[in-house]
């Protein structure tokens, strides 16, 4: 597994998001999906361990992420922002038990609030 090239497990159906004559074109749907997957970047997420999850989450362990219709495997790096007005993040080996933290993953570019 290479975090720079996540395993894409989802896809779009033919006609999903299209209208008219483009609804029946497999090639156009595939080309849109492929062009979106080429636009990769680092994504910073705010996460918290779910109460039903036993144990803690560890940095660099593979997890599945779902962003919109995309589902893929990523290896997150957990961090917390330092206090005191300095724009830097502190690496976390494990997620805090009851607090939110940030996770940085290599994923397709997404719009805020998507």
Automatic annotation (TrEMBL):
Every Ribosome biogenesis protein BMS1/TSR1 C-terminal domain range: 30-110
InterPro entries named in the record: Bms1/Tsr1, BMS1_TSR1_C
Superkingdom, taxonomy of origin: Eukaryota
GO MF annotation terms: GTP binding; GTPase activity; U3 snoRNA binding
GO cellular component annotations of the record: 90S preribosome
Listed GO biological process terms: endonucleolytic cleavage of tricistronic rRNA transcript (SSU-rRNA, 5.8S rRNA, LSU-rRNA); maturation of SSU-rRNA from tricistronic rRNA transcript (SSU-rRNA, 5.8S rRNA, LSU-rRNA)
Protein name as annotated: Ribosome biogenesis protein BMS1/TSR1 C-terminal domain-containing protein
């Amino acid at each position: 597994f290479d975090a720079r090239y996540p395993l894409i497990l989802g896809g779009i159906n033919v006609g999903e998001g299209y209208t008219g004559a483009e609804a029946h074109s497999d090639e156009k749907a595939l080309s849109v999906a492929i062009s979106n997957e080429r636009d990769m970047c680092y994504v910073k997420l705010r996460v918290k361990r779910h109460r039903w999850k036993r144990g803690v989450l560890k940095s660099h362990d593979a997890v599945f992420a779902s962003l919109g219709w995309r589902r893929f495997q990523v290896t997150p790096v957990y961090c917390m922002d330092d206090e005191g007005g300095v724009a830097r993040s502190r690496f976390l080996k494990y997620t805090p038990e009851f607090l939110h933290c940030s996770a940085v993953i290599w994923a397709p570019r997404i719009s805020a609030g998507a």
